[in-house]
Structures are given as structure tokens and as C-alpha cells.
Design goal:
With 274 residues, this protein is α/β, with parallel strands linked by helices. The chain has a single domain, classed as NADP-dependent oxidoreductase domain (TIM Barrel, Alpha-Beta Barrel), CATH 3.20.20. 39% of the residues lie in helices and 16% in strands. It contains ten helices and ten strands. The strands form two sheets. Strands 3-4-5-6-7-8-9-10 form an eight-stranded parallel β-sheet. Strands 1-2 form a two-stranded antiparallel sheet. Helix 1 packs parallel to helix 2. The chain is globular. The structure holds nicotinamide-adenine-dinucleotide. The site of nicotinamide-adenine-dinucleotide has 24 residues, from helix 9.
């Protein structure tokens, strides 16, 4: 097995470039899914308070004897808790049965609530207290990133955003690069909508890989952190089998051409109001 790539965050901590996302995994199934992923070699697990599977995720982690420092566990602050971040953080930690988190993210900015800057200040404090190694955000736009940086002087280590070949967010990614923010791709497989794309199928044939593997490899080659989700053991293993090839430059360019203005699948962070 080739080594999994990592990235160094702007606070000096190291993040695996590949992991498992567990959105929509029922709590009752999460332990089994997470433990299978860890056995396969996954080291990063991405959950969130709103996924309601932090307890199952924690059980899956506990079932494995992998040293805690080899794992990278992320969870997220839900929108209703922007003004209660320390309490929400502790609740997540208790459900996960962990002593610390590797990464805590503000899940959505929810600008109409106008509390994300307050939440960011609380996360910065949690990091200063050593209760979380790194802090970041999710679904933040350039405007929202600028505001929290201006108000605290602290640049998020990560912005986790919707990103897949049909929705590449190049302007936001360029802002991240300029400011030392790691881009983490959510719905990296377009929630399963990319598998019949003829260009991707052609690339899959060329490399002797599946479309899922080619797309995951593209995220890695672009320098993103990628967190595909599956509950099926065979797909969990398939998605991990991406460390023995690289895409040629012209193929990365071909995938760049699949970007579309209308490619967004999830909510628009500026207008999402849940
Ligand atoms: P995804 O793009 O990872 O697609 C997952 C779906 O693709 C699966 O349900 C399965 O149907 C299919 N799939 C996976 N591997 C496959 C394979 N090898 N072959 C065929 N089909 C396969 O979608 P996602 O779950 O939306 O995103 C991944 C993770 O990103 C989530 O689990 C979550 O952790 C995170 N996420 C975060 C946010 C956020 O707001 N921060 C939003 C959505 C998702």
C-alpha cells in the first residue's frame, strides 16, 4: 500500500488528505462503518453534530486499537449553537467519547443570524485552551472569511465546501490558496451523480480505475482534502485504493472543463436558512 498523502495546516498541524464522511449514516450503523474504514486504512473521519451519529462514530473509533494520535477526527458546530459554541463542543466531545478533537468547524455561516463571527471567536478560544488542535469553517464565502479574519486576526485552517468536478469553486479555492486555508471537498463524488459522465468513464478506462477512484484522485491531485462517504464495505475499500496512481496534466485539465455554473447540488451558503 502506498503512503497516504498529508497536508500541513497553517497552524503547523498535519491533516490526512483523505478520509471518510459520515453524513446520512444512521447512528446505529456508524460504529460498524467507521471501524471498517479504520481497518481499511482511513485515518480521518468527518462527522457533525447535526448528523446525529457522533456516538456511533465514537464507538467505531473505540473498537479499533489505532493510537489516538494517528487518527484525525472532525466534527462541526450546528447553526443553532453559534452563540453556545463551548457547550456544543463539549457535548460533541462527550458523544464521541474523546478527550480532544483534531478539527472543529463552524458548519454553516447562516449570515441572517449574524452570529458566525462570535462563534469563530469561541472556536479560537477552544484552540487556545488546547481542547481542539485546529479550527476552521465550512461553507464560508470570501466575504465571510474576510470578516472573521479581520475581527480576530486568526485565519481558519480549513474551509470545507461543496466541491466536485461539476462545481469547482475556483475563485474561493484561489482565495484559500492566497491565505493558507486548506480546501476540504464535501460531496466530492457529487453525491453519486458523476458516475455516468462519459469523460470520467473514459478516464476510468484509461487508468484501469473506477470513476469514483478517478474523481477522488483528482481531488488529491488538486491539493484538496477529500472525504467520500459510503456505508458499503466494498466501496469504502474501493475509495481508499487511490494512492498508487496520479492523473496526467491533460486529464486534470479535462476534468477542469466539466465545471459548471449550475453544478451546485447543496444549498447556497448565503441564502441557506436552516
Ligand atoms: P459523496 O459525494 O461522498 O457521495 C456519496 C454517495 O456516493 C454515497 O451515498 C454512494 O451512494 C455513492 N458512492 C460512494 N462511493 C462510491 C463508489 N465507490 N461507487 C459508487 N458509488 C459510490 O457525498 P456526501 O456524503 O454528500 O459527501 C461526503 C461527506 O462530505 C459527507 O459524508 C459529509 O461528511 C461531508 N459533507 C459536508 C457538508 C457540509 O455542509 N460541510 C455537506 C455535505 C457533505
Amino acid at each position: 500500500m502506498s503512503t497516504q498523502p498529508t497536508l500541513t495546516l497553517n497552524d503547523g498541524n498535519v491533516i490526512p488528505q483523505f478520509g471518510l464522511g459520515v453524513w446520512q449514516v444512521p447512528d446505529s450503523q456508524a460504529a460498524q462503518v467507521v471501524s471498517h474504514a479504520i481497518s481499511t486504512g482511513y485515518r480521518l473521519i468527518d462527522t457533525a453534530a447535526i448528523y446525529e451519529n457522533e456516538a456511533g462514530t465514537g464507538s467505531g473509533i473505540a473498537q479499533k486499537s489505532v493510537p489516538r494520535e494517528e487518527l484525525f477526527i472532525t466534527t462541526k458546530l450546528w447553526n443553532s449553537e453559534h452563540r453556545n459554541a463551548p457547550r456544543a463542543f463539549q457535548h460533541s466531545l462527550d458523544l464521541l467519547e474523546l478527550d480532544y478533537l483534531d478539527l472543529y468547524l463552524i458548519h454553516w455561516p447562516k449570515p441572517r443570524q449574524n452570529a458566525y463571527a462570535e462563534a469563530w471567536k469561541a472556536l479560537v478560544k477552544l484552540k487556545a485552551e488546547g481542547r481542539v488542535k485546529s479550527v476552521g469553517v465550512s461553507n464560508f464565502t470570501v466575504t465571510q472569511l474576510k470578516r472573521i479574519i479581520d475581527e480576530t486576526g486568526v485565519v481558519p485552517s480549513v474551509n470545507q465546501i461543496e466541491l466536485h468536478p461539476r462545481f469547482q469553486q475556483n475563485e474561493l479555492v484561489a482565495f484559500h490558496a492566497e491565505h493558507g486555508i486548506v480546501t476540504q471537498s464535501w460531496s466530492p463524488l457529487g453525491q453519486g451523480t458523476l458516475f455516468d459522465d462519459p469523460d470520467l468513464q473514459q478516464l476510468a478506462n484509461k487508468y484501469g480505475k473506477t470513476v469514483a477512484q478517478v474523481v477522488i484522485r483528482w481531488h488529491l491531485d488538486r491539493g484538496f482534502v477529500v472525504i467520500p462517504k459510503s456505508v458499503k464495505p466494498a466501496r469504502i475499500e474501493e475509495n481508499f485504493d487511490v494512492f498508487d496512481f496520479d492523473l496526467d496534466k491533460e486529464d486534470i485539465a479535462k476534468i477542469a472543463s466539466l465545471d459548471s455554473r449550475d453544478g451546485r447540488i447543496g444549498p447556497d451558503p448565503d441564502t441557506a436558512n436552516f
